[in-house]
Amino acid sequence: MSVNLEGNILVTGANRGIGLELVKQLAENTGQEAHIYAGCREPDGTRAEALKQLTIQYPGKITAIKLAYVADEGSISTAVQAVSERIGSAGLNVLINNAAINTPAPPGSFLETKKKHMMDVYETNVVGPFILSKMFLPLLQRAAERCPTGDKMSCRRSAIINISTVFSSIEKCPETFELAQVYAYRTSKAALNMLTRCQAEDFKTNNILVTAIHPGWVRTDMGGEQAPVTPSESVMGILRVMSSLSNKDSGTLVDWGGERIPW
Ligand SMILES: NC(=O)c1ccc[n+]([C@@H]2O[C@H](COP(=O)([O-])OP(=O)(O)OC[C@H]3O[C@@H](n4cnc5c(N)ncnc54)[C@H](OP(=O)(O)O)[C@@H]3O)[C@@H](O)[C@H]2O)c1
Known about the structure:
Elements lengths: L7 E4 L5 H13 L5 E6 L8 H9 L4 E5 L6 H15 L6 E4 L17 H32 L12 E5 L9 H4 L6 H20 L6 E6 L16 H14 L8 E3 L8
Parallel strand pairs: 1-2, 1-4, 2-3, 4-5, 5-6, 6-7
Helix pairs in contact: 1-7, 3-4, 4-6
The structure holds NADP nicotinamide-adenine-dinucleotide phosphate (NAP).
């Protein structure tokens, strides 16, 4: 499997962790025609320094887009307009819903988890991807319609990729629960999986592929220092998997090696 992605690709949470690495490897591994939109809260702020460096390293390939809060309609509307103006009639080929939070910090037990944690995590991890996909849908549809590949779905045509986790799997809960209870995070990502499944049904007629991907346990601020997988390894896997996705993968949860994870 090699990386075979093109077109206009938007990544949320692009200033650090897996999101930043996605932007880097997409810039490295896509052709002249591809363009990467890097959504982050403050593109001009100090927390986006690494992203700014990437935009310099790959001139004309990356546009940083302000997404002040992934669940804020005003902010998303401005982002849709900014992307729309730049891509013209081409449409958006891929929306990668990557931004997420995991609070309270692991283990995030039942008693530790408060109402505010549940609400904040649900808003960022579920409501954010819901509203983003709703507001970017016209651009995704435009890309799907322009593609000459018949009725075949792919990330080169039009796709929503929801970055999920193995912790979202209800079937796997007995084997993963002791690693980190993280009630708010697990339940939010299980809801994100259902969003993935529903949208896959809904957008089938539009030829928009919708797939959830588990990136592995990755050494980022969220994954922590003990994580065995580097962001570079994880993203290499994610991009290979994305390159190979087709109709049969829409509405599924797969890991960064391409293996199917049960709901
Ligand atoms: N790391 C792992 O081991 C692991 C395992 C399974 C799944 N995942 C999933 O992989 C994805 C990326 O994780 P990561 O490890 O790269 O996380 P991370 O290092 O904590 O980075 C999270 C990113 O999301 C952004 N973000 C969070 N809340 C936001 C909001 N409300 N509005 C806008 N941006 C927001 C952050 O922006 P700021 O810098 O502005 O806060 C940051 O760019 C997540 O969906 C996560 O659930 C990670």
